[in-house]
Design goal:
mainly alpha; 92% helix; cell membrane; cell projection
């Protein structure tokens, strides 16, 4: 019973860390997509690459800006949760 609880708690924490790490990139993609969609609706330009390229650029910029946060969050999760489980503590 204790092993199952520990497994599910670790899984829950891992999913939460994954959500927190992915959130800046997903928000950037959403905001850029809505902004480009609004511009396309206002100008009646329906070009597919017009949505893809700015969204890719925004994702790259946000990823570069939040890389330190993502690394620190993932490292903290591994040091506080995963490594002690592997060691057996």
């Amino acid at each position: 019973m204790l092993d199952e609880v520990m497994f599910y708690d670790t899984m829950r924490q891992g999913l939460w860390v994954a959500f927190i790490i992915a959130l800046p990139i997903l928000v950037a993609a959403l905001v850029t997509g809505v902004a480009i969609g609004l511009v396309q609706a206002l100008t009646s330009i329906q070009e597919m690459t017009l949505t893809f390229v700015p969204k890719l650029g925004a994702i790259a910029v946000v990823f570069w800006m939040s890389m330190g946060f993502m690394t620190a969050t993932l490292t903290s999760f591994f040091q506080s949760r995963i490594i002690p489980l592997v060691i057996g503590g």
